[in-house]
């Protein structure tokens, strides 16, 4: 099948790779413009662009799809369908109506739960026991189109956003290949109940607030791994917390109850959180034992909330 693929991050690159391997003709790839990243702020191509160029596929990076000239360039491809995965730009109605099979989206949640930009992180933050992938016929709404195919994915107790993302990306790649092989498929409307929205993750959400239950903070650590990384302040230094565990403990929220090789134990509103892996700004990730070897922590002192 001749198609246009629109996507930007690694989640989308896995789907693109699977579509190519299945023998479909990817006539054009749409991806967001190169972004400055790293300490040198050099422009960096998205994972989707890197794959497309390696495969000799035409890459188009318009800053918006509302431009009639951009739309005409896409129309000239005469694709049968447009596949969208974590693209990051809104598709106007002109594009939704353009190909015979419309535009089909790969979304990492069990719609209508977690419509929006950050379904993986929001599912972890909420303590959901399962999530999944939906293949959706796109309409003008926010992830509100009818469903073509879906599959469930359990959420493990130790899942981070990274580990869950990787499994969902593989699942989405398999499902989109199946959908393309079965088009046209009958789409079913999404349920009208159970709608939730997954707002984009902000760095301001990263700070661990010790006035919350330890179980909630432990989910926050996992949901924000790898981005933006949960944070706290010990002895004036802003630290990222990469791994934490809920443990027994009672004390004023934020008070350090213990500093031992297994971790730094901080009192929360309900229970305590053991900080097992930490990182100073500009440093490397360290186990609690490695961290304490170079940065002594006094029991009874306070672990503050980061404002970074």
TrEMBL record:
Keywords: Protein biosynthesis, Transferase. It comes from the Bacteria. Its EC number is 2.1.2.9. (6S)-5,6,7,8-tetrahydrofolate binds at residues 109-112. Residues 200-294 form the Formyl transferase C-terminal domain. The keyword Protein biosynthesis applies. The keyword Nucleotidyltransferase does not apply. GO terms for cellular component: cytosol. Residues 1-180 form the Formyl transferase N-terminal domain. It holds the Pfam family Formyl_trans_C. It catalyses: L-methionyl-tRNA(fMet) + (6R)-10-formyltetrahydrofolate = N-formyl-L-methionyl-tRNA(fMet) + (6S)-5,6,7,8-tetrahydrofolate + H(+). PROSITE patterns: GART. One of its GO terms (molecular function) is methionyl-tRNA formyltransferase activity. CDD domains: FMT_core_Met-tRNA-FMT_N, Met_tRNA_FMT_C. Belongs to the Fmt family. Attaches a formyl group to the free amino group of methionyl-tRNA(fMet). The formyl group appears to play a dual role in the initiator identity of N-formylmethionyl-tRNA by promoting its recognition by IF2 and preventing the misappropriation of this tRNA by the elongation apparatus. HAMAP family: Formyl_trans. This is Methionyl-tRNA formyltransferase. It comes from Candidatus Accumulibacter phosphatis. The gene is fmt.
């Amino acid at each position: 099948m001749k198609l246009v693929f629109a996507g930007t991050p690694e989640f989308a690159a896995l789907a693109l790779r699977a579509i190519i391997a299945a023998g479909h003709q990817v006539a054009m790839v749409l991806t967001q413009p190169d972004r400055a990243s790293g300490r040198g702020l050099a422009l960096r191509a998205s994972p989707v662009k890197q794959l497309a160029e390696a495969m000799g596929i035409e890459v188009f990076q318009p800053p918006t799809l509302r431009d009639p000239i951009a739309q005409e360039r896409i129309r000239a491809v005469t694709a049968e369908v447009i596949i969208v995965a974590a693209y990051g730009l809104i598709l106007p109605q002109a594009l939704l109506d353009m190909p015979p099979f419309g535009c089909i989206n790969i979304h990492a949640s069990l719609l209508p739960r977690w419509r929006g930009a950050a379904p993986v992180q929001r599912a972890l933050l909420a303590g959901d026991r399962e999530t999944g992938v939906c293949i959706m016929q796109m309409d003008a709404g926010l992830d509100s189109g009818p469903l073509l195919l879906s599959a469930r994915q359990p959420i493990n107790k130790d899942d981070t956003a990274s580990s869950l993302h990787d499994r969902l990306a593989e699942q989405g790649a398999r499902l989109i290949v199946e959908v393309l092989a079965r088009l046209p498929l009958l789409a079913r409307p999404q349920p009208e109940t159970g709608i939730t929205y997954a707002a984009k993750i902000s760095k301001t959400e990263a700070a661990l607030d010790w006035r919350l239950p330890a179980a909630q903070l432990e989910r926050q650590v996992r949901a924000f791994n790898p981005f933006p990384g949960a944070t706290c302040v010990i002895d004036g230094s802003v630290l990222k917390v990469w791994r934490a565990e809920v443990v027994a403990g009672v004390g004023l929220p934020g008070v350090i109850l213990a500093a031992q090789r297994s971790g730094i134990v901080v009192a929360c509103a309900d229970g305590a959180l053991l900080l097992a892996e930490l990182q100073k700004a500009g440093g490397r990730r360290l186990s609690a034992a490695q961290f304490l070897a170079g940065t002594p922590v006094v029991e009874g002192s306070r672990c503050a909330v980061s404002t970074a």
